[in-house]
TrEMBL record:
<dbReference type="GO" id="GO:0005737">
    <property type="term" value="C:cytoplasm"/>
</dbReference>
<keyword id="KW-0443">Lipid metabolism</keyword>
<dbReference type="GO" id="GO:0004306">
    <property type="term" value="F:ethanolamine-phosphate cytidylyltransferase activity"/>
</dbReference>
<keyword id="KW-0808">Transferase</keyword>
<dbReference type="InterPro" id="IPR041723">
    <property type="entry name" value="CCT"/>
</dbReference>
<dbReference type="InterPro" id="IPR044608">
    <property type="entry name" value="Ect1/PCYT2"/>
</dbReference>
<protein>
    <recommendedName>
        <fullName>ethanolamine-phosphate cytidylyltransferase</fullName>
        <ecNumber>2.7.7.14</ecNumber>
    </recommendedName>
</protein>
<keyword id="KW-0444">Lipid biosynthesis</keyword>
<comment type="pathway">
    <text>Lipid metabolism.</text>
</comment>
<dbReference type="InterPro" id="IPR004821">
    <property type="entry name" value="Cyt_trans-like"/>
</dbReference>
<keyword id="KW-1208">Phospholipid metabolism</keyword>
<dbReference type="GO" id="GO:0006646">
    <property type="term" value="P:phosphatidylethanolamine biosynthetic process"/>
</dbReference>
<keyword id="KW-0548">Nucleotidyltransferase</keyword>
<dbReference type="InterPro" id="IPR014729">
    <property type="entry name" value="Rossmann-like_a/b/a_fold"/>
</dbReference>
<feature type="domain" description="Cytidyltransferase-like">
    <location>
        <begin position="207"/>
        <end position="299"/>
    </location>
</feature>
<dbReference type="Pfam" id="PF01467">
    <property type="entry name" value="CTP_transf_like"/>
</dbReference>
<keyword id="KW-0594">Phospholipid biosynthesis</keyword>
Length: 379
């Protein structure tokens, strides 16, 4: 008699998308998708396909492939995945079904990109993470607003006062493109956390920074830092601290958003939320830190003018790392500003297509089900 446990079929899950400016919303969608099966395959579209159907991506396809590979729940990345998900694609990678968030994705012609897999019953839906979208982040950078790190009773209100031509203001009609509220919870942090503690024999590495608009520059640095030991801890500075040493409207993403973005990275084991700017003896002793790393970017002094790495330098455990990648958050902001008009057009078109498809779906739903008997498609 065979053992049923050993006979259990491996469930392979397919996800696809642009994954432009990969943020915790993308990561949360992939986390939920992985939970529906055993292996997660993620298809990423080319720059050409995205430009055709949606508008210019912020990041290049090579940058986007790399970012998705680094998300801890992803098992395999398929480069140049087709924009419209087909049954042939699912079969080619032996995937049982496709998973996407409960928002709408359409082609240049306004067609639902998942209509084929939906019709075949090989589509599952997960909840979209409210309060963040690539569109919203682009809007924040274009307008350089400080709304995203309000404090007090407005602390969790994410950028509600954007310009309507970006489709990201409080009156934005599309529920997917428009801004929402991101409400951080301990449960969300637990879901993103590895839940691991360093073993007594582990060499603990510590790095600190803003890690704003988490990008491939951060990724390469964290991979290099991870290679310095066995357990990588990332200290994230508060919004006020980041604003002190970066100025302007930084950070673009608030502390809660940055925590989840960093936790989703497979090279990171733990995050210190609101870490002190200066690496103290207390912090190093508490976490048993043996190596403290910093990249090649200039080190801003603490508020009192002191070197924030005095203690690790005195202990002889400070390392300057070259990751081979010089990208900074400021570089990304400049990319956005240089192509401002293109992105404004992209965001407006995206909202219009979403609204058009929503209306069409609502009409079809009423025709098929009548006013009294409404079928629940999400069950």
């Amino acid at each position: 008699m065979s053992d049923n446990k050993n006979d259990k079929k491996e469930i392979r899950v397919w996800c696809d998308g642009c994954y432009d400016m990969v943020h915790f919303g993308h990561a949360n969608s992939l986390r939920q998708a992985k939970a529906l099966g055993d292996v997660l395959i993620v298809g990423v579209h080319t720059d050409e396909e995205i430009s055709k159907h949606k508008g210019p991506p912020v990041f290049t396809q090579e940058e986007r492939y790399k970012m998705v590979r680094a998300i801890k729940w992803v098992d395999q990345v398929v480069e140049g995945a087709p924009y419209v998900t087909t049954l042939e694609t699912l079969d080619k990678y032996q995937c049982d079904f496709c998973v996407h968030g409960d928002d709408i994705t359409v082609t240049a012609d306004g067609i639902d990109t998942y209509h084929l897999v939906k019709e075949a019953g090989r589509y599952r839906e997960v909840q979209r993470t409210a309060g963040v979208s690539t569109t919203d982040l682009v809007g924040r950078m274009l307008l350089l607003t400080r709304e995203h790190f309000k404090r007090g009773d407005k602390e969790y209100t994410v950028a509600l006062d954007h310009s309507s031509n970006l489709g990201t203001d409080s009156t934005a009609r599309s529920p997917y493109t428009g801004c929402s509220q991101f409400l951080p919870t301990t449960q969300k942090i637990i879901q993103f956390s590895s839940g691991l503690s360093p073993k007594p024999t582990d060499k603990v590495v510590y790095v600190a920074g803003a890690f704003d608009l988490f990008h491939v520059g951060h990724l390469d640095f964290l991979e290099a830092a991870n290679a310095q030991g066995d357990f990588l801890i990332v200290g994230l500075h508060t919004d006020l601290e980041v604003n002190r040493y970066k100025g302007s409207n930084y950070p673009i993403m608030n502390l809660h958003e940055r925590v989840l973005s960093v936790l989703a990275c497979k090279y990171v084991h733990e995050v210190v939320i609101g870490a002190p700017y200066s690496v103290t003896a207390e912090l190093m002793d508490h976490f048993k830190v043996q190596v403290v790393c910093h990249g090649l970017t200039p080190i801003a002094p603490d508020a009192d003018g002191s070197d924030p790495y005095t203690v690790p330098k005195q202990r002889g455990c400070f390392k300057t790392l070259s990751s081979g990648n010089s990208m900074t958050t400021e570089d990304i902001v400049q990319r956005i500003i240089r192509h401002r008009l293109e992105f404004e057009v992209r965001n407006t078109r995206k909202e219009q297509k979403e609204l058009s498809l929503m209306k069409s779906l609502q009409k079809n739903h009423i025709k098929q089900n009548g006013d009294c008997h409404v079928k629940n498609d999400s069950s």
